[in-house]
Amino acid sequence: MRVIACTGLKGGVGKTSTSVNLAALSAAAGHRTLLWDLDPQGAATFCLRLKPRIKGGAPKLLRGGRGGLTAVARSSSVDGLDVVPSDVTLRDADRVLTGTGRPAKAIRRLLSGTKGDYDLIVIDCPPGLNTVVESVASTADVLLVPVVPEPLPLRALVRFSEFLEDTSAASPKLLAPFLSMIDRRKPMHRRIETEIRTTSLFLGAAIPESSAVARMGEEQVPSVVSSPRSLASLEYRRLWAEAAERAGL
Ligand SMILES: Nc1ncnc2c1ncn2[C@@H]1O[C@H](COP(=O)(O)OP(=O)(O)OP(=O)(O)O)[C@@H](O)[C@H]1O
Ligand SMILES: [Mg+2]
After folding, report:
1. How many structural domains comprise the chain?
2. How far apart are CA 220 and CA 55, in angstroms?
3. HEC assignment per residue over 4-69
């Protein structure tokens, strides 16, 4: 079982859209896939048309209450894709995880408790430098970080990398940043894309600003399913290939 986390310090940059689309592509490729929505906003849950309800509540789940992830997972409208939904009880996730004494271990236990039911678990993280993110980072195989090609998001990526080092949560080598919401009509986006291509830090996929992706919040269907021929879907498939290879799938 492999774990891909969509994470990062910045909010509103495409973590959830990426989680939902990559999870759908993984399932379409025949991998038994679980998407774990760990953000109290519940956007991934909403985009897959599931009720925002964790059976028994998030504190019980995070403390390792009986049943684990498998007991709260729901099947989705995408064949082969199960979802652990989010609800508002996740607002206390940092405090609950800290209260366990070993937050990273608590997350690792939950993931390993799925006992071979899944080939891949995709985790949609809340934004920020918090205990949830630190714990997930310490157990994930790949940390996908969407970066809008502008100076402040690039600074946030550096800060996120320092956070991983400072907390010893994960090696910055696990970081897999990629360009998100790129609009090549903007000179700044073109210039920053050229600059980052002189390094090998970023993945090759670059998800364009796309109305097909934005519509996911309305249609509640992964955009790679509803608009498979869009440029965004082409780039999501490229991202999936790169992420799957890094995860060893
Ligand atoms: N490639 C894209 N093109 C156009 N709109 C996008 C794209 N990716 C995401 N969006 C839109 O931008 C908003 C934020 O996207 P998303 O929820 O995926 O980001 P996020 O990083 O998960 O945000 P948060 O940090 O709040 O969890 C949403 O309204 C989404 O529909
Ligand atoms: Mg999100």
Report:
1. 1
2. 22
3. EEECCCCCCCCHHHHHHHHHHHHHHCCCCEEEEECCCCCHHHHHCCCCCCCCCCHHHHHCCCCCHH
Report how far apart, in Å, the C-alpha atoms of 209 and of each of 43, 83, 92, 180, 181 are: 18, 26, 33, 7, 4
Domain that holds residue 197: 2-247
Q: pTM value? A: 0.98
pLDDT tens-digit readout, 17-74: 999 999 999 999 999 999 999 999 999 999 999 999 999 999 999 999 878 999 999 9
Q: Which residues of the chain have pLDDT under 50?
A: none
pLDDT of residue 66: 75
pLDDT score at 168: 94
Question: What whole-number distance in Å separates Cα of residue 47 and Cα of residue 158?
Answer: 30
Residue 197 sits in a domain whose CATH number is 3.40.50.300
The residue type of 238 is R
CB-defined site of ligand 1, < 6 Å: 11-17, 39, 41, 43, 127, 181, 207, 209-210, 213-214, 216-217, 232
Q: Indicate which residue's Cα is closest to atom 16 of ligand 1.
A: 14
Distance in Å, CA 60 to ligand 1 centroid:
29
Is the torsion defined by CA of 183, 232, 226, 84 positive or negative?
negative
